[in-house]
Amino acid sequence: MHKSSVVSIIEQQSLDIDLPSPSGNQAFCNVSALEAGHLDLLDEEIITGATPGKVTTVPSLSFLLRHSTDKQTLLFDLGIKKDWQNYPPTVVHWIHTAFHARVDQDVAESLVMGGLSPDDINYVCLSHCHWDHTGDTRPFKNSTFLVGEACQSLLIPGYPKDPKAEYLSNILPEGRTVFYNPSNWEPIGPFPRALDFFEDGSLYIIDAPGHLPGHINLLARTSPDGGWIYLAGDSAHHWSLLTLDSAIAGHSSDCAHEDKEAAQAHILRINALMRQHPRVRVLLAHDEPFYAKNKDGPAFWPGKIETL
């Protein structure tokens, strides 16, 4: 289908995509990128029309969100473990043969270099449970972990009980993890299900189906007067998917997303958000263009991403 036809369908079928206006003394979040490792992606496995054999080295980003008034801190994703050799053997094999991950600086080190420690983090929100997003949860001994409820099915029995499993059974700390069921969440903009996390309009957890069970995104205000950021996790692995210049590669059996149809529907919602709201900055977990432009710059902690 032609790109313009897809856009027309979105405009006819999408939900009301207005975002809530700021209130008086509106709270917001300061958002900073964090170094959390790199990996290689084969373009033709994630987008249609890719150059055959082209490999792109992408970051596996983490983001630090700091509430403007009560100073609560939240990490979105933890990137890759520095000791990735201790992932389950299935994952280690993938890293050796396909993804070639490397971690010069993990999330905990990135925090410390900017003046915080893992002990200072109130919440860790994982977009999903793939190895390049769960990082090393052990240093975050004081944090409450936030995940989509559906991810629980991936961790049972998990590794090491199942030696072929790709998920560590103990990746989420017992007694400190909140499993969210989004079925009763309210809509926001083009997204059918969202949770007002701080209950003040500063940060929303977004149900983001398609990639993996329990996949979630974040929508945060970045200013008191209408700036936003949308942290899309693995909703897309390449910017040409969000602009609708490419489609998701592969079939249901060899696709980067567990539910290709649901993933494409969610991409269309993000595209609608971008087109209708110029003050929403959208970032991917593996956002190579953002990283290339901002590496070692003020968008990374202890700096912050400029609001639109």
Can you walk me through this structure?
It contains seven helices and 14 strands. It is α/β, with parallel strands linked by helices and 308 residues long. The protein has a single domain, classed as Metallo-beta-lactamase, Chain A, CATH 3.60.15.10. The strands form three sheets. Strands 1-4-5-6-7-8 form a six-stranded mixed sheet. Strands 9-10-11-12-13-14 form a six-stranded mixed sheet. Strands 2-3 form a two-stranded antiparallel sheet. β9 and β10 form a beta hairpin.
Whole-number count of domains: 1
The biggest beta sheet, please?
6 strands, mixed
Would you count the extended β strands for me?
14
End-to-end separation: 32 Å
Number of helices: 7
Radius of gyration: 18 Å
Mean pLDDT, to the nearest integer, reads 94
Secondary-structure content class = alpha/beta
CATH class wording: Alpha Beta
Protein name: Metallo-beta-lactamase domain-containing protein
Domain Metallo-beta-lactamase: 59-286
Family: Belongs to the metallo-beta-lactamase superfamily.
GO molecular function: hydrolase activity; metal ion binding
